[in-house]
Design brief:
By secondary structure, the chain is of the alpha/beta class. Helix content is 40%, strand content 16%. The strands form three sheets. The chain has a five-stranded mixed beta sheet, with helices on both faces. A five-stranded mixed beta sheet has the order 9-8-7-6-10, with helices on one face. Strands 11-12 form a two-stranded parallel sheet. The longest helix is centred in the C-terminal third of the chain and has 26 residues, at 317-342. Bound molecules: nicotinamide-adenine-dinucleotide (NAD).
Length: 368
């Protein structure tokens, strides 16, 4: 009994649902965390190796992210345990079955995440009438295509840069995980004068202190290539990205990639967290003591979910960019100022902001 409720605290999770459909081989888990502000929004991740605890932590991160962004939504997350690279028809079957299974869980609105995309959300919407991050052809704002999250990461970086002693024009940027978030973060930061000096994917790292051609790297990835196939730059293994000196180091791959045992390899001033929970608590404390400013995930990478919320409430691409810009700049500034004025970590400042908003929403609800 106690073990089943091992994650329970003052905020949630409201429910944890295990889904199993033996005929299809569908195994999934859904965590709906806190819904005081409104129905939860959170990604559907397809991966073979995510624990219930990781799913809960991701759902909680969505609670804080949605609250910190000031959205009328709580936080949730789901995982379908499967290989995201499976055959397309099999994937469609699995996602449609998952959608039907969560049909009655109306306080959860599915969105895209690692291993799923707009097309997958189209299948979910087709089955149960609700999902965000839809294909444009059925009224969605294709957030990965337009780079909503990367746009927000770049906005947060610009506001936080002076607090970290970084000048954006000419700043050297490293991106770990050159996917949807990583590529667009690099692209929008380059528009502000920053230079990409290294990037990594699951196969390896490419680096060049004089700068890499971002558009050429994006074209390489879009054609199915790996960064280590790039025609220029020095090549290294996946973890070599940790060792590249820079001003801004952007994690945009997976959780817990930087820990106490490898944080000493980072040589940077500012870390806008593009991925969800990419660093352990210990790693963030060590960086704080070293004077490195970390913009917490749920502040820096809220662009995607803000875009999803704008879409859910009937907005368009232009209004999404406007809302992302205003909210992320405002929230990042509040967090940086509280960090400086109260001498606390940026995560503590951001959590204070989010908690204040969730607690205010909970006072309006009968059951919390
Ligand atoms: P993606 O699948 O498009 O890209 C992930 C990239 O990371 C790929 O290039 C992959 O090769 C690389 N990768 C995987 N393991 C790696 C490793 N160990 N080292 C280096 N690279 C590695 O995914 P995405 O949508 O860009 O999401 C990345 C992260 O950002 C995830 O944690 C996701 O939850 C989070 N996130 C995404 C969004 C969004 O809008 N897409 C929004 C908020 C948060």
């Amino acid at each position: 009994m106690q073990d089943m409720f091992r994650f329970a605290d003052a905020y949630g999770p409201a429910k944890i649902i295990h889904i199993y459909r033996p005929k299809l081989g569908l195994k999934a888990i859904l965590v709906v965390d806190n819904v005081a502000a409104g129905p939860s929004i959170g990604g559907v991740r397809m991966a073979p190796d995510v624990s219930v605890e990781e799913c809960f932590r991701l759902a909680r991160a969505m609670t804080w992210k949605n609250a910190a962004a000031g959205l009328p939504h709580g936080g949730g997350k789901s995982v379908i345990f499967a290989d995201p690279h499976m055959d397309e028809a099999a994937k469609e079957n699995l996602i449609r079955a998952f959608a039907v299974a969560i049909g009655e869980v109306t306080d959860y609105i599915a969105g895209p995440d690692m291993g799923t995309n707009e097309q997958c959300m189209g299948w979910v919407r087709d089955e149960i009438g609700r999902a965000v991050g839809l294909p444009a052809v059925i009224g969605g704002i294709p957030l990965d295509e337009i780079g909503a999250t990367g746009f927000g990461v770049a906005a947060a970086t610009e506001v936080a840069a002076p607090f970290a002693g970084v000048q954006l024009d000419g700043a050297r940027v490293v991106v770990q995980g050159f996917g949807a978030v990583g590529t667009h973060s690099a692209r929008f930061l380059a528009e502000k004068g920053a230079i990409l000096v290294a990037a990594s994917d699951s196969r390896g790292t490419v680096s060049d202190p004089d700068g890499l051609d971002i558009e050429a790297l994006i074209a390489l990835k879009q054609s199915g290539g790996h960064l280590t196939d790039f025609c220029a730059g020095e090549k290294g293994d996946t973890d070599a990205v940790l060792d590249v000196p820079c001003d801004i180091w952007i994690p945009a791959a997976r959780p817990d990639v930087v820990r106490a045992d490898n944080v000493g390899r980072l040589n940077c001033k500012l870390v806008p967290q593009g991925a969800n929970i990419p660093f352990t608590k210990e790693a963030e404390s060590i960086l704080h003591e070293r004077g490195v400013v970390v913009i917490p995930d749920f502040v820096a990478n809220a662009g995607g979910v803000i875009c999803a919320s704008v879409e859910y409430h009937g907005g368009n691409e232009r209004s999404a960019f406007d809302v992302i810009d205003i909210r992320i700049r405002n929230n990042t500034r509040l967090v940086m100022e509280e960090m400086r004025d109260d001498a606390i970590t940026p995560r503590a400042a951001a959590l204070n902001l989010a908690r204040r908003r969730v607690e205010a929403a909970m006072t309006t609800r009968r059951w919390g």
